[in-house]
Amino acid sequence: MASSAQKRLQDYVAIPSINPMGRTDQPAEWVGEARMVAHLEEEMRQLGIDAEVVGTSDRPSLVAHVSSGRTDAETIMVASHIDTVPVDGMDIPPFDPVVSNGQLSGRGSCDTKGGMAALVASLERVLKKGTLKRNLILVGESDEELGSQGVKDVLAALGSSRPDWVLATEPTEMKVVHRHKGVALIRLHAKGRSCHSSNPSEGRNALLTLSRAALALEDLHRRLGVEPDPQLGPGTISVGQMGGGQAPNIVPDHGFLVADRRMLPGETLEKVRTEVEEALQAARVWDDVDLVACVMGKPPLSTAADHACVSQCRRAMEAAGLSSATGTVAFGTDAGVFEQSGLPGVVLGPGSILRAHTSTEYVELDQLEAMTDFFESLLENS
């Protein structure tokens, strides 16, 4: 018989909540988090919990406050993003959840609707028993996969009513993650002078200049590897997109490049920008290449291993009969965004990042049930 968490996750996967990621070619009935928020709002109503919808009507987030009734109770926030990446190229029906071989498949099953399903299932248990010992702020936030607008909307709605710490659900294979890399996006524009390709020396090829800039970034990547973080390894930079030009018979006068910079805790955007500028100057392309953007995608997470939120999660894992292993990950999460606003936190959830965003996305049901048991233990023990 399917558990409450499994049934809820099947319902969630069947509700499309694609983050458009700036695209306009997705079916309207698949895009946005409004349908997921409405479903969660109804689930909260059935549990006797008032929920607030924040953000815009097409990209909303949900915030629900659950009080333990204890004046000395700690307040924790559990934030589970409810948007998913698009479904292009999937080899399974994205919104028709299938249970097979101990796995539940479908878009969002792993990243990261499983975390929300486990939380709501555990909350149902705890409220039924009357054993809630912590105040809970349950958050289903939008736009994690792109700009974290949901986090900004949630923080604005909370105002000064902040939790003591945050748990962001993401697929960590049930390890308590307290440190992760951040991500910055870098965009370069190269300038040239166009002419007929039959006499290219009359022009200045922007794409050749851009290629030298790309090689300069590759040299920077190698230098970053010299000083790795003991747990996270080195910072990295990777060129992900390049383009430009008008036609094969025209020497291009413009080009663009977008690079992904994975940042270590302690690194700043100013440091990243300076490194790129110095790399371009050393390659002697600075005069023809503009650094038009260097923006934070997700900040790094740098919670100390002995922080109370890490210790409490580990104790809850042990109380539930689970491994209390900690870990680090290379991907960014909204936990870094919350930390940047002054809220410490951890990342924890069922499933593997290797299954997230894939054509056959799935989550292991034993990990889903383990997450449910963990939440029950966390909520019942102060």
Describe this structure in words.
It is a single chain. The protein is of the alpha/beta class and 382 residues long. It folds into two domains: 4-180 and 300-380, Aminopeptidase, CATH 3.40.630; 182-298, Alpha-Beta Plaits, CATH 3.30.70. Helices cover 31% and strands 24% of the residues. The protein is built from nine helices and 16 strands. The strands form four sheets. A six-stranded mixed beta sheet has the order 1-2-6-3-7-15, with helices on both faces. Strands 10-11-9-12 form a four-stranded antiparallel beta sheet. Strands 4-5-16 form a three-stranded antiparallel beta sheet. Strand 4 (98-100) and strand 5 form a beta hairpin. The two termini are 32 Å apart. The mean pLDDT is 97.
What would a concise description of this structure say?
With 382 residues, the protein is α/β, with parallel strands linked by helices. It is 31% helix and 24% strand.
- The CATH class of the largest domain is Alpha Beta
Rg from alpha-carbon coordinates = 23 Å
Give the tally of β-strands.
16
Strand coverage percent: 15-25%
Strand order within the widest beta sheet: 1-2-6-3-7-15
Largest pleated sheet: 6 strands, mixed
> Structural class, please?
alpha/beta
| Discrete helix count | 9
The figure for the number of domains is 2
Global geometry: elongated
CATH homology superfamily name of the largest domain: Zn peptidases
Mean of all residue-level pLDDT scores: 97
Helix content: 25-40%
Oligomeric state of this protein: single chain
CATH topology of the largest domain: Aminopeptidase
> What's the helix-strand series?
HHEEEEEHEHEEEHEEHEEHEHEEH
What gap, in angstroms, lies between the N and C termini? Answer: 32 Å
